[in-house]
TrEMBL record:
Protein name as catalogued: HSP20 family protein
Every SHSP domain range: 25-137
Sequence intervals crossing the membrane: none
Similarity comment: Belongs to the small heat shock protein (HSP20) family.
Organism: Actinokineospora diospyrosa
InterPro entries: A-crystallin/Hsp20_dom (IPR002068), HSP20-like_chaperone (IPR008978), Small_HSP (IPR031107)
CDD domains the UniProt entry points to: ACD_sHsps-like (cd06464)
Length: 143
């Protein structure tokens, strides 16, 4: 249903830890955690995007590639505010999913609630189990 190819994800995580220790912060945001599973006749994908404005989320499908892009903007410091700690990553998060041919990419629905983006992708009709009727001409043994 879903092909996962992200060979640099672990490398990015390690590099982020190293650079954060050396420089205090790192400009590239961490990855977008995801859960994906099949529930009946649909495929469900959930992304954790806490603190992201729903207007700052973009979803695109081209062929069988689903692209998710989200931006968490930094909190603006107002007069008299001095940050003591700023660890929450901000910037642009993006992720691509390679969807199998068994999914109906024409009917994807999306909802955003409590910092979780939920995508529901129906299983294509041609991929659903179905009964096959047996037909044909029966010839009599006596004929």
């Amino acid at each position: 249903m879903l092909m996962r190819t992200d060979p640099f994800r672990e490398l990015d995580r390690i590099a982020q830890q190293v650079f954060a220790g050396a420089q205090g912060t790192w400009s590239r945001p961490s990855s977008m955690p995801m859960d994906a599973y099949r529930a009946g006749n649909e495929f469900v994908v959930r992304f954790d995007l806490p603190g992201v404005d729903p207007d700052a989320i973009e979803l695109d499908v081209e062929r069988n590639v689903l692209s998710v892009r989200a931006e968490r903007r930094p909190q603006e410091a107002s007069d008299g505010v001095e940050f003591q700690v700023s660890e929450r990553p901000h910037g642009v998060f993006s992720r691509q999913l390679f969807l199998g041919d068994t999914l109906d990419t024409e009917h994807i629905s999306a909802a955003y609630d409590h910092g979780v983006l939920t995508l529901r992708i129906p299983v294509a009709e041609r991929a659903k189990p179905r009964k096959i009727a047996i037909g044909g001409n029966r010839k009599s043994i006596d004929a």
